[in-house]
Amino acid sequence: MKFLARLSALLLILLALPVVAAAQSNDVIVLNDTTPSVNIVVTLPADATGVVALDFMNVSVRMTDAGGSTVFYTADSRMHALELSIAPNTGSHNLVLERMPGVVEAYARVNALAQLTDYSLGAPQISGDFQLISTSEQPVAQRQSLALASDQPGGTLSVALPAEQIGVIGASFANAQATTQLVDANGALMASSFNGHIDGMNAIVDGGAYLFTVLSSGITEAATAQVSALPVAYSQDFFPAERVSAAEQSAGGATVTCFAQVSVSSVSLRSGPGAGYSVTGYGFSGESLPVGGSNPSGGWFVVGKDGGSAWVFGGGVQLSGECSGLPVFSVPFRDAPQAQVVIVTQPPQYVTSGGSGSAGGAVVGGGSHDSGEDGEDGEDDGEDDGEDDGEEGDG
Asked: How many CB atoms lie under 10 A from the CB of residue 106?
């Protein structure tokens, strides 16, 4: 708790500094069974902007606004570092760093900057060690622009990095009030921002071809979105030297011998064990997915899908192969919140009969009366409906 308090205070102070240089935090966040996620509050002064810089390994990054709505999300092992520029006057934000499904141990480091790093200038990155490089496959840098206006609120720009080479994709879209997406050449989503809270970013990613889409909402004056890409030499040597290796992350690197075949029409693939976690994809009838572990109760399984991993409810799959001795990951179970049902009893309404000689009025509407009926058909008998065992499925 003391560490999180220090980190929150660091972000609050550094984001308020009107200077380019920022202090550097050497605190490395380790996410494991004891601490699978951390929350960091980020607040900007009025009319000010600021940048949150992150280096991470096997971590999903989510930023929410003061109302809890997601304004940025990524969960892709091909992304290694981020700088997120927060638009002015968008309120406080909550940064959630969570260990990816099926991962034994994950690492992150968070700093605050006054502005996005301009990699084309060769300036030192605040979070990681890097240098610009040139290859025979492409020029040092690519940069494309997209004009935005009320009659052309969005578009898509394509950039590429050399294969097998890490690089940085930079994007700026100030004053565009934009929702954005970064996808790879196969259309797989790598990162998204929503509702104009983020107005620029730098992402250090693996080599490949990428598409960056910008869609403005309610734009009133012309703006320009720019996307650039250039290869960099980047390392994460600041993470613990004794960190869990990639091979150890996947059950010691052993060959997968357990598979889960979808036995229903479709199942939701989620970011954690339980219907309270977000849906990251779907599995369909007959599809076979490699299994890498389970939660402690054995009701949810970590499966591989599209180069990543996700959690699937055991009631929707049939296991096959050698599935004994699966690794157990102590990720907290999170059920979907139950729907709130409110019963309001209306007072009885008395309507006077129009017939002559009526001795009283007829009762119309809710409420009890002495009609001789038992009046129990609307009452809750309080019996358990059998769906509160916490492992009922993913809804």
From this structure: 25
Q: Is 372 exposed, middle or buried (0-12, 13-18, 19+ CB in 10 A)?
A: exposed
Q: What is the DSSP string of 231-273?
A: EEEEE-TTS-TTPPPHHHHTGGGPPP-EEEEE-SSEEEEESSS
**Domains of the chain from N-terminus onward:** 2-235 (2.60.120.380), 248-321 (2.30.30.40)
- Contacts (Cβ under 8 Å, ≥6 apart) of 313: 267, 268, 299, 300, 393, 394
User: N- to C-terminal Cα distance for the chain?
Assistant: 34
Q: Is the pLDDT at 265 greater than 60, yes or no?
A: yes
Looking at residue 124, its amino acid is: P
Q: Is the entire prediction scored with pTM above 0.90?
A: no
**42 has which bridge partners?**
93
Local confidence band at 27 (pLDDT 50, 70, 90 cut-offs): confident
Contact 176, 199 (CB under 8 A): yes
pLDDT in tens, 192-228: 999 899 999 999 999 999 999 998 887 778 888 889 8
Q: What is the dihedral of CA 87, 215, 279, 323, to 10 degrees?
A: -100
Most confident of 8-17, 179-188, 371-380: 179-188
- Mean per-residue pLDDT, 347-364: 52
Nearest to 275 by CA among 392, 127, 130, 123: 392
Residue 123 DSSP label: P
Q: Yes or no: say if 128 and 197 are a contact pair by the CB < 8 Å rule.
A: no
Per-residue pLDDT reduced to its tens digit, 111-164: 888 889 887 654 433 333 333 333 334 444 578 888 888 788 889 999 999 888
Query: What whole-number distance in Å separates Cα of residue 159 and Cα of residue 209?
Result: 6
Contact (CB, 8 A) for 171 and 179 = no
Query: CA 95, CA 63: separation in Å to the nearest integer?
Result: 4
Between CA 378 and CA 386 the distance in angstroms is 20
